[in-house]
Amino acid sequence: MTNYILRRLLLNLLVLWMVASLVFLAVRALPGDFVLTQLATNLEFADNQAAIDKARKDYGLDKPLWRQYASFMGALARLDLGKSLLTQRSTWVELSERVPYTLELGGLIALVAFSVSIPIGILSAVKQDTWIDYTLRGFSVLAVAAPVFFVAVIFTLFVLRYNLWTIDIIGRPHFWTSPAAAAKLFIIPAVAGGLSGGGTIMRLLRSQMLEVLRQDYIRTATAKGMRGRNVILRHALKNAMIPVLTVMGLTISGILSGQIILENMFNIPGVGQFLFASLRQRDFPPFQGTVFIIATVIVTLNLLVDILYGWLDPRIRLS
Amino acid sequence: MAQSPATTLFPNQAEQDRVERSAASRFARGFVRFARRRRLGAIGVTLVLIIVATAVLSPLIQRYDDTQVFEVPNPEFNPTANPLDIARNPKLSTPTIFERYEAPNGAHWLGTDQFARDIFARVIVGARLAVIIGIGASLISVSAGTMIGIVSGYFGGVVDLVVQRFVDALQAFPGLVLLLLIVQVVNEPPLALTVAALGVLGWATSVRIVRSAVLAVKSTPFVEAARSFGASDLRIMVQHVFPNVVAPIIVVFSIGIGAYILAEASLSFLGLGPADKTTWGKMVSAGRVSLDLHPWEALFSGIAITLTVLGFNLAGDALRDELDPRLRGR
Predict the structure, then answer these.
(1) How many CB pairs below 8 A link A and B?
(2) How many C-beta neighbours within 10 Å does residue B1 have?
(3) pTM, full prediction
(4) Is the distance from CB of A31 to CB of B186 less than 8 angstroms?
(5) Nearest-CA distance from A270 to chain B in Å?
(6) In this complex, is the C-beta atom of B184 within 8 Å of any C-beta atom belonging to chain A?
(7) Which residues are CB-neighbours of B271 under 8 A, at least 6 positions away?
């Protein structure tokens, strides 16, 4: 087991090195650089080549690619994610202001996703091929098919039309500073993201439940006189959730993709909005750093899930 | 001119009609049986047929050009109005009025957008784009994924290790970030680049699934037999491995289409979709400008995306359950 974990950790390092190199090369393949995007708003410098060259030198953008790569890798090895060219602040500082928003929204999305999908997944498996099952399955396929931004648009339209509340997209509220404003801002993206993320979980959970409910131990549990609810919650659900947990890495990365859109729609200054903005401004260091951190989280999560898998399901102990 | 085999087979016209009719009715009966067994799948196939037909026939049904701007004569226009009156009432000076933000009516079935363009025409044109993008991206990802997946699974060893780590690296990106990176390589991404970017995004998944199918086929006796006859690796891969992983390949192809359409809509919504093309994602985004007063554009284009993705997903699921139920939940 220890050997397995060590081997996986080494492979993960290899994967993270690939991610870092890929993103480093990809951003430099993009047209334009930070100096040029900044000049787009300062036209008086646009044809001043000397000024452009000086700015490139100041930002270190004139160095040959391999030197930039070497210093990026060297910094990464020291867990230094570089400074934002725009604000001249460390990427860690920039992230520390944005991660709370992303965790608030992401946590809410996950909460909505699981609290909607688990009951629906169970119910639609237990009532297989009844009208309840058909309705719930219809709901889940719709949730998967509808784009997250369209769901958000519909809810926004509803709130605006019936004047339910004011969505404060300027105040940047946290739940611990102004809970009411935060709730009004976060509820639409949380429900939209949660439904999109939950749709996949619902369908996976339903098919897993159907599989588990056919097992002998379920029949045994029922035969020995256990109450139906206990059979389903204690015996069936626990085992049906294992495959749902194994796609956790995918689920999280899907939620993050949705958050890029939702944070931009609702002007929530989280990591998703930061990623998009720094990419558009060609502010490479924070973009590279943020992608690297996200990849680290996803890869680590996948490893944890695989370890957890062997622990939850002893039949597949990893050798 | 060469005669078609059907005419040679049935010299008698009536006989041929009867056989063809029975072929059609056989198909219809087969579909009814399929529909009874997989109701959601039948809904999906029907939706897909409607959307593909719309995409193919779009020039016939869109009624107007998707970029045509509609104007009507201004009843208040007065060419002889003096500047003082125009200052009081600027409408006097414009000969035409743009038909912006019309609600759905007889002339514009789904209304008009903020630039006075027909929403119905734009939704129909969007269908063509969605079908091209979904099928194109899926073709790219599946054909690239099949080649790499077969090679990686068949040879194993170092090749497999490197390919799998590369796949891991791609899957460690949130999908949208990867898309944003590829699409921005050009300032105004053309349609082909969008399709290619989506293909790269899905490539990792295709490789994964094809590879695991290949691993199962690789250890079968018939592959061993072929090798003992002295067949080359290439021959084994093409003649023996490939035909036995066709089912998962078809499944991956059909199940991916909806996801690619969805991903493209997100890209367009963020303003990075294919340049100069009318896409549904762009329409939802544009419709948000005046959502509370004029929701039609955002609503209709959003419904179009949802129904299209729904159709392709349901059809893909049904196909998977028919061909290869083990892929369920992947």
Answers:
(1) 143
(2) 3
(3) 0.86
(4) yes
(5) 15
(6) yes
(7) B282, B285
A23, A142, A260: residue with CB nearest B306? A142
Q: What letter would DSSP give residue B273?
A: S
CB-side exposure of A37: number of CA atoms within 13 Å? Answer: 16
The C-alpha of B164 sits at a distance from chain A's nearest C-alpha, in angstroms, of 9
Of A137, A160, A253, the CB nearest to B174: A253
The per-residue pLDDT for range A250-291, each reduced to its tens digit, is 788 888 888 999 999 999 999 999 999 988 888 888 999 999
Among candidate residues B328, B319, B312, B206, the one with its CA nearest the CA of residue B265: B312
Assess whether pLDDT exceeds 80 at residue A317: no
pLDDT at A2: 82
| Chain segment A304-313, per-residue pLDDT in tens | 888 887 777 7
For residue B112, the 8-state DSSP code is B
User: Whose structure tokens read 């648009």?
Assistant: A153
Q: Determine whether the interchain pair A149/B172 forms a contact, defined as Cβ–Cβ distance below 8 Å.
A: no
Ranges of H-type helices in chain A: 2-29, 34-39, 49-59, 65-77, 91-126, 131-145, 148-161, 179-213, 216-223, 228-230, 238-246, 248-265, 271-280, 284-312
pLDDT-derived band at B6 (thresholds 50, 70, 90) equals: very low
Question: Mutate which of B163, B173, B284 to disrupt the A interface (most A C-beta within 10 Å)?
Answer: B173
The answer to whether the CB atoms of A18 and B305 lie below 8 A apart is no
Q: Are B55 and B280 spatial neighbours (Cβ–Cβ below 8 Å)?
A: no
- Tens of pLDDT, residue by residue over A87-129, are 888 889 888 999 999 999 999 999 999 999 999 999 998 888 8
User: CA A46 to CA A55: how far, in whole Å?
Assistant: 12
Kindly identify which residue of chain A lies nearest to residue B186, measuring between CA atoms: A31
Interface test with A, best of B161, B180, B312, B313 (most A CBs within 10 A): B180
Q: What is the ipTM of this complex?
A: 0.86
